[in-house]
Design a protein that fits this description.
It is built from 13 helices and twelve strands. It has 367 residues and is of the alpha/beta class. Helix 5 packs across helix 7.
Length: 367
């Protein structure tokens, strides 16, 4: 058999966006026989009546228990074994993967692409679908709600933005909850974040199966480059005096500085974050902690700071030398004082003065 025979569709979207409802609708269609993997803890019983409508003889789908709830952590192992097991059934025309609501699609897709390129597998990543709750985007991202109306963690909306930015299909679900004018605002905000993905409005996840499967194959590099954050990194020079402006009137620039931030000053800056900034994402470091890489994300009025890894400059010298022998290019952008440590933030907004934002950030630098 030739390679690339069984398409895999990755369904992402935050908790409550309508992923499961979408999957139930897909399973109820009799056009093609599809298999389903649900990324969650343990296993679940899929409603037998729904599966019977599809002609699928499997009444229970065992789900892989993923460490930390992220399927990219075990993608090459248990998860891919399950994919391959299903692909061995020649009657299955496609495999749908419902990702956890807290997973990052770029990490999952990246690990999948590595697997696809390094093995003689029959499966390939066909589409990455982001199910978007139109009502939630309108209420929590476009509208400036009072803080006591939103009790969830501030990083929730950042995760939703990540899921929107990395996809080639957006299912704009729950459109019946908004007026046409409100939906226009939601569509515009989504297009600012992801300019090339097709936006498909729907209610209760009712989307024709062919709309998802009959399209051009997923292109990892193209999707990555189409996000607002990646476009800014590719197109904007940090030293450029003007911000890059796109066709939607959204401008962006990149802030880079080797010296560390003062944590207290940066937190104060975040507490009074400029309302003209729509989205910020990047890696930073603080003066009292030169070991950890901190991921800073902001979307609308929500922001989060999370330690994600260690700077290579903080590694033991012996370990660093071993890595350098294998990857000599790690020294290409090495600073004599700070090593690989750097503050690099992509800032996207509308109606702001770049110099004002730059000055606010420089005021946060440890003096």
């Amino acid at each position: 058999m030739s390679k690339r025979e069984v398409p895999v569709v990755l369904i992402t979207g935050y908790l409550g966006s309508g992923k499961t409802t979408l999957m139930q609708h897909i399973l109820s269609q009799e056009k093609r026989k599809v298999a389903l993997i649900v990324n969650d803890i343990g296993s679940i019983n899929i409603d037998a009546s729904i599966l019977n409508k599809t002609g699928n003889k499997v009444s229970q789908i065992e789900m892989v228990e993923m460490q930390n709830g992220c399927i990219c952590c075990t993608l090459r192992d248990e998860f891919m074994n399950e994919i391959e097991r299903l692909a061995a059934d020649n009657s299955i025309e496609a495999i749908f993967v419902e990702a956890s609501g807290i997973s990052e699609p770029s990490s999952i897709a990246g690990a999948f692409m590595v697997y696809e390129q390094s093995t003689d597998t029959r499966v390939y990543l066909k589409t990455v679908v982001s199910v978007v709750d139109a009502d939630r985007i309108y209420r929590e991202f476009l509208s400036d709600l009072d803080s006591d109306e939103d009790t969830e963690e501030g990083d929730v909306i950042n995760l939703i933005m990540d899921q929107i930015e990395f996809c080639n299909v957006m299912l704009l679900n729950k459109t019946d909850l908004l007026t046409e004018e409100q939906l226009d605002g939601v569509r515009a905000s989504l297009r600012n974040l992801q300019q090339t993905a097709e936006i498909i409005p729907c209610v209760l996840g009712k989307v024709d199966l062919d709309v998802i499967l009959d399209r051009e194959d997923f292109d990892f590099d193209e999707v990555l480059a189409s996000s607002s954050v990646q476009r800014a990194l590719n197109e904007c020079e940090p030293e450029d005096e003007t911000a890059c402006v796109d066709e939607y009137g959204i401008s962006s620039f990149v802030f880079e500085e080797r010296a560390p931030f003062d944590r207290l000053k940066f937190h104060r800056f975040v507490e009074n974050y400029p309302t003209t900034i729509i989205r910020t994402k990047g890696y930073i470091w603080f003066s009292e902690d030169d070991s950890h890489v901190q991921l800073f994300e902001q979307a609308g009025r929500n922001a989060s700071i999370t330690a994600v890894s260690e700077w290579m400059a903080a590694w033991p010298e012996e370990t660093l030398k071993q890595i350098e022998e294998e990857y000599p290019d790690i020294r290409d952008e090495w600073d004599d004082t700070y090593g690989d440590r750097i503050n690099q933030l992509v800032i996207i907004g509308k109606g702001y003065e770049k110099n004002d934002i730059m000055n606010l950030l420089y005021d946060c630098i440890e003096k």
